[in-house]
Amino acid sequence: PKALETVALQAVRELISKKLKPAREPKGAMGKLTKWASEDLSITRGIVLNKARDQVMKQTKGKYPAPLKILDVVGASFEKGLGSKAAYEAESKGFGELGVTPESKALVSIFFGQTACKKSPYGKPKQSPKKLAVLGGGLMGAGITEVSVTKGYDVFLKDMSLEALGKAQKTVYDNLSKKLKKKAMTSAELTRNMTRITALDANSNWAQHFGSVDMVIEAVPEIMDLKRKIIQETEAVLPEHGIFATNTSAIPIRVLAESSKRPQQFVGMHYFSPVPQMPLLEIIPHAGTSEETLAAAFEVGQKQGKTCIIVKDVAGFFVNRCLGPYSDEAMVVLLEGASPSDIDKAMLDFGFPVGPITLADQVGIETAASVGKTLKSELGVRVGVADPAFMDAMIAAGYLGKKSGKGFFVHDGAKGSARTLNPGMEKLLKEYRKSEKRINLFTIQDRLTLRFLNEAALCLQDDIVRSATEADIASVFGIGFPPFIGGPFRYIDAMGAQKVVDLMQHYRDKHGEQFTPAPILMDHAKAGKKFHPK
Over the Cα atoms of the chain, what is R_g? Predict the structure, then answer.
């Protein structure tokens, strides 16, 4: 409003001329006492700052220098006088020092990389999708529905079971209610978003509704015959321009496209779980996918709030293809004698948000074993070193991970409770372990990380991912590769390709061909090149 602008400008003029003095003194006895205790009493101030440092270290493990530097500046400002010239100089100096740290450069590279990924390589679609359908009422389907309706899409959510549909709608409602509680959404917006969902079971008139849908996103279980059947019956009722997108993490898109009567309008859209929290979307064309379909998929993904990357149609696509060797090496060191807790601790200390053993429990042991076997069929020794019989034995024993209450660890559902090793794992490990030796945490970090870096390099070499920048963004946003490092290729550049090659050759001589450096790494090492020249 004009009146507010006039008053604000007048206040600014009076502040500049010093006619108006800001009332910054605390009000009331309690306010003055708090100020005295926190600002004027040096002992209390020191306690508060030390407590804050402890909290920062707990949350960041010292990997991010900015919060600690901020506390240093706050402490210096208290000592030299808040608002004094010396305090401002401490702030300016701290800001300058942070701006040239490796962490700052890595995080800035992520910002610019994410910005670069926002530009669709296919332009805008001629017909932008307005109505979506989601097939499957599981956690993935519920998540895709949530990120769609909150961005203005009308969604037909279909599942065979009314019970599954009810659970999916409750999941969406519960998640949106949390936003309401945090005041990130109004009650009117929550209601409007929920009314955008039309739940349809097998006995409803779903075919009539699907006749007006612009894009279907299929999120049913990873069963080939089930997916093929759904593709055929869904395409039979879609409008002529309707696009079919499959959310699969392992089945080749080209294989599923064989069941499509309109392969040019068939595409892979690989979301990551939990969908509302994970920002990455892999878009996977097969040889016959049209650019119009890709443009539409990119637009929908972006509108859902995702960072989209285009990935070649290969086993595991990009993220899971790199995660496979990393997870395989975790199982290798486990069977060599490293404890599950040590493996997790090593990678948490490196900067990953979750350890690989806990990740296997969260994903599910059956899923992890299935993806591993799929990748092994294409990658061979690059992902098939660990004995697959060990995970088969876990499945046979009913240790399926978090969903069954027991995997590598016991999952009792108690919030904040310390994880304990599943007692039944000790017997299995004794049966399948080659030794009981303790492995150094830094060695675990080296071996797991090098397997990831090498596969990422092979993906870039084989055009599975279009650039080192997109590979870095996908790794950070898809599995939480440490953001303060900037991604696998920023890490290789920081270490130097020659050092990476030397380390890999050391481990190859000691542990086998899975550590053979990718030719692209060898070339960069020989030429002294970086993947990111700037």
Answer: 27
